[in-house]
Amino acid sequence: MDEIVYHDRYRNELCVEKVYGDKALRWTYGTWGGKLALAAMVKRAWFSRWYGWRMDQPKTREKIRPFIAEYGLDASEFARRPDEFANFNEFFFRKLNPSARPIDPDPSTIVFPADGRHLCVPDLSRCEGLFVKGQMFDLATLLDDPELTRRYAEGSLLLSRLCPVDYHRFHFPAAGRPGPARLINGPLYSVNPIALRQNIQILATNKRVITSLETETIGKVLLLEIGATCVGGIRQTYRQGDTVSKGDEKGYFRFGGSSTIVIFEPGRVEFDDDLQQHSADQRELYARMGDSMGRII
């Protein structure tokens, strides 16, 4: 299988992703034996719950410092020292110091909701594909709501993919008032491009949570968190009905790679040039939570 290449906004260069669990992932999605295991076990919720439980055990503390070293994480960003985490899962959904992720202060911008590798779709009615040209997931399946499907059929979308090495809290991309989080159950396939290049519909059928954010500047924004293999859970930390500011925390993922999706009404936002350019080439852009992803039209 091909390497996963993305563009790093800060280094302004193409990078090859160092995939956590690469051999297991390629075996699962690239061999007959792996695909049998996927159907029988890996995609099941109990498998991810079991793996999440494993990451809650005190002995997993031993994994933290080697993980930081192998993936080059900056521990000075953490709100707690590495030896203060009780287990690997606590480290995984760690908080950061506020100074580590400043929020773009320009009132005309919207910001990335999470650290990760991002793709945008300026017009969902004209999408030419995400990871592979010509392949796009079904919006009606994703939203599971005919009215929302009609309303956002020509809207714009941001997909943010969080790897296990990333900061795993997700935030509000704009100020507003969030409603309740609606759970749609589904399987838990991997959201790594290795899997998505084979079946992009994974994004629309995996377990997911949808929240509407009412804003004064860009209408109603849909915020989705997508579960994935070995995600121990999607936790919401915001309070329904409270007014939130741009960049406020919404929640976090427990162990595993995951994705978020933000969907805007038609004609409300214009994505940043680098995000649009790389998305047009089906190449993800690495950027951090709080940085600009686009502007209000």
From TrEMBL:
Record keywords, A-Z: Decarboxylase, Lyase, Pyruvate, Zymogen
Domain of life: Bacteria
Entry's Gene Ontology BP terms: phospholipid biosynthetic process
EC class name: lyase
EC number(s) reported in the record: 4.1.1.65
UniProt entry tagged with the keyword Lyase: yes
One Pfam family named in its UniProt record: PS_Dcarbxylase
GO MF terms, alphabetically ordered: phosphatidylserine decarboxylase activity
Protein name per Swiss-Prot or TrEMBL: Phosphatidylserine decarboxylase proenzyme
UniProt organism field: Stieleria neptunia
Taxonomy of the source species: Bacteria, Pseudomonadati, Planctomycetota, Planctomycetia, Pirellulales
